[in-house]
Amino acid sequence: MTDKEFTEEEKIHRKMAIDFFNYTWTLLDKEKRTIAEDDEMIHAAHASRFHWGKVGTPTHFERGEWQISRVYSVLSHPQPALYHAQRCLTICQENKIEGFDIAFAYEAVARAYALAGNEDEKKKFYKLAQTAAEQIKEADDKDYFLSELKTI
User: How far is it, in rounded angstroms, from Cα 121 to Cα 99?
Assistant: First the structure.
């Protein structure tokens, strides 16, 4: 779908989804954030997912859920991290989304379980993530994924 196929309202949702997604990454990448910036990061990630919910595809939905889970993981909030990681995984499974995205869905679940102190579930999903990594075709994507997986 090109921009010409979007209504004006849909174009606004798309722009907001992208802008909030990128803003969330800006905050995630900061070495030190204030409490206010932590709050903004949570709100921006949810806002991005909200706007993708209006105009996106299942891939946008699961990536939005993944990003929300990562935000909560970075902020050491295991319950919402796990909830959104599981939503990400469910969206991937229901829509047969594979490769890079399913690998990161498993990574998010493993990370959330690790944060929650559930070592058995962490190991289970970590192994699923490793197996899914074998299906990532692009070498750079695979290397990036594996480097992220090692941070759990």
Answer: 21
